[in-house]
Design goal:
heterotrimer; A mainly alpha (251); B alpha/beta (231); C mainly alpha (128); A: 9 helices; 0% strand; globular; C: 128 residues; Arc Repressor Mutant, subunit A; three-stranded antiparallel sheet; 5 helices; 58% helix; elongated
Chain lengths: 251, 231, 128
């Protein structure tokens, strides 16, 4: 069931983001060509467009992930979604998974566009030199498994942090849902309330702050930070679950 | 055994009691009218049955169980509003229903859509309200469910569409299923009802076969309703 | 057949009445097949259980019978049909009598008026 839910969120979001990423790739290819042919004006314009598209992608992803939760579960579509033979937990987990997937797709899209840019901009000889240099560094130990491990750790913390933040947003929306007359205001107040609570809890525990604070306070122990973020995400999601499962009140 | 049972079912919204200790037993193979003025608790009862709402007291049982993800697979709910994602095409919605509901008869749904000339590659956004309503009805009734909950299916609908809706409900009749129609427009639906339940301010004040009401009162269900609910 | 129902009488009784009339006046001749419950329910816009109830009673009265695999048929039992016509005609006569009596006519006045009307309209043959 989870897979099916992901499929339809994918269609809903993909129809907006995938064309954007396709445009990104296209622009990067064009940009590469202008670089190779040294067309200054074209380059300038395309660099601006490229940056705009990336910004749009980030903004849209953030917006869509929040909007999907609010609109798809708590708007009129909620009548469709909550009538499905699926548990409330499935819905919440799926929305968080969807968020991870789309963030990953966004990052991959940017990386891919970078590669496309390199492929079209640089002459083959330079690229070949770059690749052989890269492989040399791996084979004589200048790039190590540990380095890859470090990159993964950073990604883990970023992912966990994102999930914790989004879980907080979802919980705020759920709390706002309880206040019938002023749902959006309620959500904003809840978010602020949760943020304040996080600061108090972390100060009480002798720390500078949750999420980013964890990085500093755990002495850059990435896995510990990631773990703490996940616990936070679980707590917020439990709250979201309780509200949506026991106190749903669609308009 | 009743397929839908309410035992002292109670639901409050703040200080307002929407359902007040409701006891009700509904059986399969019947088309039952849940009749009452706006605000009498009809939608609340239906939402509890489809687990969109939780009771404050008592319980509602579907085939002996409290509403959960399993009862939802045998309950087909048609809300009184537009609930389909606007961006989806009708063909995608077919796939959606097929994916989530094992009892969805896609072939039947496609035939019904075709008979109304509703194209498959058009998004919900592009359909008129009347057509949207019909799509919703077709999707709901194309499931082989045990309980159909129709919340005001004919309100705000033109007479021809109303006939279509009632014909669809009748042709879908199964002795294994309960169809619960909630409405305040009684004269339009009373000929298709087996039984009538009058809901007044959250309480069941009557639950009888429609013909029995006619026999005992010498009035149509609609006329008797007006009497019972006269202000 | 078009169906219109009065709201204030049990529908199953109205279905029965309509069938009795149709069988008596030849709309459904003896031995003809009657539509299935579902079909009739859809056509008439009424609940299938109501139709079923009407059929059960018609069956109990011997006006229709069920052939397991082929469906429901109008009886061709001449005695039953004769009895039906007699019942319907006395119902109609009773109704007419009550209406005319309400106008203040006596039994013999009514009989006389009926005979006069019949004689005057005899040439027109049986109005169908």
């Amino acid at each position: 069931m989870l897979g099916k839910l992901i499929k339809y969120d994918f269609l809903a979001i993909g129809r907006l983001l995938l064309p954007l990423y396709a445009a990104l790739i296209a622009v990067s290819l064009l940009l590469g060509i202008t670089v190779r042919m040294n067309l200054q004006n074209g380059m300038a314009v395309l660099i601006i467009i490229y940056t705009l598209i990336i910004t749009a992608g980030m903004v849209m992803t953030a917006y869509l992930l929040v909007e999907r939760f609010y609109h798809n579960l708590l708007g009129n579509e909620g009548y469709l979604m909550f009538a499905l033979p699926v548990t409330t937990a499935d819905h919440i987990v799926e929305k968080l998974l969807s968020a991870l997937i789309w963030t990953a797709i966004g990052i991959v899209a940017v990386l891919l566009s970078g590669i496309c840019l390199a492929l079209t901009a640089a002459p083959w000889s330079d690229l070949m030199k770059g690749f052989s240099e890269f492989f040399r560094m791996i084979s004589n130990g200048e790039i190590r498994g540990e380095d890859v491990g470090q990159i993964l750790e950073i990604l883990a913390v970023l992912a966990a942090g994102m999930v914790a933040f989004l879980a907080k947003v979802y919980c705020s929306i759920a709390v706002g849902h309880l206040w019938r007359e002023h749902r959006i205001l309620g959500s904003i107040l809840a978010f602020i309330g949760f943020s304040i609570l996080e600061v108090w809890v972390s100060i009480g525990a002798g720390r500078a702050g949750i999420i980013t604070g964890y990085l500093l306070d755990t002495g850059f122990n990435f896995w510990l930070s990631a773990g703490q973020c996940l616990i936070l995400a679980a707590v917020y999601s439990a709250g979201t679950w309780f509200i949506l499962d026991r106190h749903l009140n669609l308009e | 055994m009743s397929i839908l049972e309410c035992r002292k079912l109670t639901k409050r919204y703040g200080s307002l009691t929407a359902l007040d200790q409701v006891d009700l037993n509904l059986e399969s193979g019947k088309i039952v009218g849940l009749l009452g003025p706006n605000g009498s608790g009809k939608t609340t009862l239906i939402k509890i049955a489809s687990r969109l709402l939780q009771p404050d007291g008592g319980e509602l049982l579907i085939s002996g169980s409290r509403p959960d993800e399993n009862t939802k697979s045998i309950v087909s709910y048609l809300p009184d509003r537009s609930y389909l994602p606007e961006w989806m095409k009708t063909s995608q919605l077919m796939q959606f229903y097929s994916d989530f509901y094992m009892d969805f008869d896609r072939k039947k749904a496609e035939e019904l859509m075709a008979s109304l000339q509703i194209p498959g590659n058009v998004s919900i956004r592009q359909l008129s309200k009347g057509t949207r309503d019909k799509v919703q009805l077709i999707l709901t009734m194309s499931r082989k469910a045990r309980v159909y909950l129709l919340d005001e299916p004919i309100a705000g609908v033109d007479p021809a569409a109303r006939d279509y809706i009632l014909r669809t409900i009748l042709s879908n009749y199964s002795p294994d299923a309960l169809v619960l129609i909630s409405t305040h427009l009684i004269s339009d639906v009373e000929s298709v009802l087996d039984e009538a339940v009058f809901l007044k301010q959250g309480r069941v004040v009557l639950h009888k076969p429609a013909d029995t009401i006619r026999e005992e009162t010498g009035k149509s269900v609609d006329a008797y309703f007006r009497e019972v609910f006269a202000c | 057949m078009t169906w219109t129902f009065k709201g204030n009488e049990p529908i199953y009784l109205q279905i029965i009445a309509q069938f009795r009339l149709s069988i008596a006046n030849g709309t459904y001749p003896p031995g003809t097949r009657i539509p299935a419950v579902r079909e009739l329910a859809l056509e008439a816009g009424v609940n299938p259980n109501t139709v079923q109830r009407a059929f059960s009673e018609l069956e109990r009265d011997g006006l229709i019978y069920t052939e397991r695999t082929s469906g429901r048929f109008v009886t061709d039992d001449e005695d039953v049909l004769r009895l039906l016509k007699a019942d319907l005609s006395s119902e109609t006569i009773a109704q007419m009598f009550h209406q005319l009596a309400a106008l203040g006519m006596s039994g013999s006045e009514i009989s006389k008026a009926v005979k006069e009307w019949a004689d005057a309209h005899e040439k027109e043959g049986n109005p169908k």
